[in-house]
Structure formats: C-alpha cells, structure tokens
Amino acid sequence: MDTTNSIKKSSKVGNYVVYAILIIWVLVNLFPVYWMFTFSLKDNAEIFGENVVGLPTKWLWSNYVKALNSGDMGRYFVNSIIVSVSTIVITIAAAFMATFAMTRIYWKGRDTMYKFFMLGLTIPIHASIVPIYITLSKVKMLNSYQALIVPYAAFSLAMAILIASGFMNEIPKELDEAARIDGCGIWKTFFYVIVPLMKPAVSTIGIYTFLQCWNELMFASVFNSGDKFKTLPAGVQEMSGRYTTEWGPIGAALVIATFPTLIVYIFLSKKIQSSFIAGAVKG
User: Fold this and answer.
1) Rounded to an integer, what distance in angstroms lies between the CA atom of residue 201 and that of residue 168?
2) If we measure between CA atoms, which residue out of 200, 207, 203, 211 comes closest to residue 278?
3) pLDDT value at residue 283
4) What is the mean pLDDT of residues 173-186?
5) Rounded to an integer, what distance in angstroms lies between the CA atom of residue 116 and that of residue 111?
6) In the chain, which residue ranges form alpha helices assigned H by DSSP?
7) Dihedral of CA 12/15/16/17: which sign?
8) In this predicted model, what pLDDT tens digit does every residue of 107-141 receive, in sequence order?
C-alpha cells in the first residue's frame, strides 16, 4: 500500500510539474501578443520607459484612427484582402486541374510533369526576385495587383498540388468510369464528381496560401513601389519611416496586420492539422 501511495504521489507531483512548465510556456508565447496590443494603445512616454510592460494608463484608441487614416492602413488592408483572395482562388483552381490531369488522366510524361511541379518546393521564393522583376517590368505589370497575385499563386502551386494529389488519389477511379457511362466528359467529371469530394483540400490549400501571401514583405515592397497597391506588410514598413516620433500608430498598424493571421490560426488550426494528416495518409 505504501508503495502504491508513493507512486500516486510521485505521479501527481510529476503532473503538477508538467502543468507548471506548460503554463509558463503558454505565458511566454502569449506575451508578445499582449505586448503588441498594449504597445498599440500607448504614447511614446509609456513605450520608452514609464510603463513598458503594464497596461496603458490612457487607452489611446486614436492610434488606430491615425493608422487607418494618416497611415492608409485601411487601403492596405483592402489590398491585402484582394491579393490574398485572388491568389487563393487561382491557386486552388490551377492545382485541382493540374492534379486531375496528373492523377486521373493517363498520358505519357505525367509522372515527369508531377516531379517537375514538385521542384517548386525546393526553390526559395525570394531567390527569384530579380528575374520576376525583369519579367513583370517587360510585360508592364509592376505596381498592380497582378504583380503580386501571379508570383504568389505560382509559388503556392507546388504545395497545393502536393496536398491535392494526396486527397485525389484516394478518390476511387470507379467514380470516373461511372460518370463516363452516364455520359459525362472530362470537364463534367471534374466539376461534378471530383471537385465536390475535394472540400477538405480546398480548406487546407486556402489557409496555407492565405498565410503565405498575407505576411509576405519582399515581393510586396519591390514589385509595388506606389501606395495605391501596397499590402499591409509593406505599409507597416513605410509607416516606420513616416512616424519616426509616434510609435503608437505603428503598433496599431502591426496589430491590424498580425491579428487576422492569429485569428485564422486559432479557429482553424485543428482543421489545418487534420487536413494535412489526412492528405499525408491518403497519399
């Protein structure tokens, strides 16, 4: 009995230690979010000495008004939405069509083509900034939404095909044969049979692509030098030079740029993980 009680006590102590470590780890990870939010509601005096870590003495919501109006963060936010949504739609459509051609249609060289697409995973996105810039300049696409949408979609395509192929390979090919017997051609089979069964892949690719293009800075600052088509990361970078004495609006701009991705992750993290696991197992 004494041995059993000692084992139970030691296991409880071990659990308490684990819980304490996890709580500390959570606090360490949440502190930057807390600091960023409180930073956005303070003036320079509090930010640089009087109240660095604590809650704001005066909650300066006017910093958000300055960020949205004087800093044009409202426009940059809309630009990021347009670029992200357009990139997601193009990436999903192109990935599904390419995956359908390489997994459901038999033609010479389809395996080679799949490997060619997978090479895209090995290319660092920013290593190609010079040739992309030259190409966009020659076709007169700089300083436009297309200057970001096309490169973002192109670099998201390899991962999107990898995810989509894992799901599409699991769909029984007997469904294709049944659709042909009923008179469906390739396009009807694709749109009415395959696409409705690919909803988990749609959410996974969409979330992955959103996180990639929402936070991207290098392309956004190089390909769009004018204010009209800037996205949030480039806009925040510009504000750091514009407001050299007021850091509160810069903190507000960081909150506006960062919190959407945190919200997406909080509410959809389980969906992302389960979809990736399902795609890996099916592949």
Assistant:
1) 9
2) 200
3) 44
4) 84
5) 9
6) 2-39, 44-45, 62-69, 73-103, 110-118, 129-138, 146-168, 174-181, 186-189, 199-214, 218-223, 232-242, 248-282
7) positive
8) 888 888 888 888 888 888 878 888 999 999 999 88
